[in-house]
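Work Package 4 report. The design task specified in the project plan requires that, given a folded chain encoded as structure tokens, an amino acid be chosen for each position. We show below one input record used in the internal validation round.
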């Protein structure tokens, strides 16, 4: 069923709902009269109930359809799942880019603070904090 078909079904439900409301209004109008016609009241009431049952069943079908589509189950003609996957991937890429930028900024900030001897070797030199007088031998 195409999107146009679905819209047409919803349009028919709306028209049936209008008939339902009109029937209810006619029944209430008949009841508000000084001399009520029981036959006319019953006719309008029966039409209201018939329309109401039709609207209820058609809306239930639409709700069931939407429940199936929204649960992520494959559905022909629905691009929602693919669009959601694409959107999530885009957000992950943006997060990774921003995280890499933050790490590069931290790296630049840290490398600008280090003395030149530590920048080249990557380990503390002699006489620097963290240096051992044992020459790397553990005691």
């Amino acid at each position: 069923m195409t999107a146009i078909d679905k819209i047409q079904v919803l349009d028919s439900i709306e028209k049936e709902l209008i008939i339902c409301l009109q029937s209810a209004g006619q029944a209430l109008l008949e009841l508000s009269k000084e001399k009520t016609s029981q036959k006319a009241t019953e006719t309008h009431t029966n039409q209201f109930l018939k329309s109401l049952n039709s609207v209820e069943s058609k809306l239930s079908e639409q709700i069931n359809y939407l429940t199936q589509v929204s649960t992520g189950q494959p559905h022909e003609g629905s691009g929602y799942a693919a669009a959601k996957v694409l959107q999530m991937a885009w957000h992950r890429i943006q997060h990774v880019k921003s995280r890499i930028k933050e790490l590069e900024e931290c790296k630049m900030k840290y490398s600008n603070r280090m003395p030149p001897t530590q920048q080249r070797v990557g380990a503390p030199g002699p006489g620097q904090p963290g240096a051992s007088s044992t020459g790397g031998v553990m005691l």
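The chain is about 75% helix and 0% strand. Validation will be extended to a larger panel in the next phase.
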